[in-house]
Design a protein that fits this description.
By secondary structure, the protein is α/β, with parallel strands linked by helices. The protein is built from nine helices and ten strands. Helix content is 42%, strand content 19%.
């Protein structure tokens, strides 16, 4: 398995620093969720006019772009909005051509008052299939994240099974466990054959009496998300993909800076992976 981090962790770093720190901390790859102040990566010089130079720098550093964490959503209010989401996926898919195969993360999106998952799922499945088709043309892969009102595996499975294309999953290992109390075994039983990518983070409940309510993020291994057990589960099931750290510094200014969180994650994960290799 391979280590990457998303650039949510370092919104103040430029490309040169992102690459340098990834090398210094011992990561294998980078998942781009924006660069600097810009979330729409294709709008930056580094990923538009300077795209080939960026690809060269990443390659010469011995790194891989593991993915692009887009903002694209399946559940939107109009066909015009749906077209905009599809265009975003295509923008990332074009970028992927410079880096080789990579994953493009998409969301389902939240339900509006009065909506049911059963009613929403078929249209979302159609839009997901369209995104997969677009990504395929550029050699990229779309993965749908366990997020929003779809963190529970049975809910997400409604869309996956209705999709006319084979749809694959980004397992944000934090959300199903923390937000709906779903066991690791349940997540894997329902989604395991589709899980191609992961996002990792740790947390503790703000109120221990309500473990699925409010929470605060912690450094890796300092919370109560069973991350070590998840790594063991993935290893046992033959997963050999990315263990990507999603430290949400962009959204949470009060959490530890990337200079602390990123090397700590890499160190802890290397220790856990070394234990597995030693068995």
């Amino acid at each position: 398995m391979h280590l990457a981090f998303t650039t949510l962790a370092c919104p103040e770093w430029n490309l040169k620093k992102v690459i340098a720190r990834a090398m210094e901390y011992g990561y294998d790859g980078i998942d781009f969720r924006g660069l600097g102040p810009e979330l729409s990566l294709w709008k930056t010089p580094e990923f538009s006019t300077g795209l080939l130079e960026t690809a060269r720098q990443v390659q010469e550093a011995g790194l891989t772009v593991s993915g692009f964490s887009s903002s694209a959503r399946l559940h939107v209010a109009s066909e015009e909005e749906a077209a905009a989401q599809l265009a975003e996926v295509e923008a990332y898919a074009r970028i992927c051509r410079a880096f080789g195969p990579a994953f493009i993360r998409v969301f389902v999106g939240g339900l509006k008052p009065g909506e049911t998952r059963e009613a929403v799922a078929p249209r979302c499945a159609e839009r997901l299939a369209a995104m997969i088709d677009v990504a395929d043309r550029y050699g990229a892969s779309v993965v749908i994240e366990t997020h929003d009102d779809w963190v529970a595996s049975p809910a997400l499975l409604m869309i996956l099974e209705a999709c006319p294309r084979h749809a694959e999953v980004l397992w944000d290992v934090h959300h199903p466990y923390r937000l709906v109390g779903e066991s690791l075994e349940t997540t894997w039983r329902l989604l395991g054959k589709r899980i191609r990518y992961t996002h990792f983070k740790d947390s503790l409940p703000v109120d221990p009496a309500a473990p699925n309510g409010a929470y605060r993020y912690t450094l890796t291994g300092e919370g109560d998300i069973p991350l070590r057990d998840i790594v063991r589960l993935l290893h046992a099931q033959g997963y050999d993909g990315w263990l990507t750290y999603e430290w949400e510094k962009r959204w949470h200014a009060d959490i530890a800076p990337p200079e602390v969180a990123l090397p700590q994650y890499a160190q802890v994960m290397r220790e856990w992976l070394a234990e597995l290799k030693g068995r």
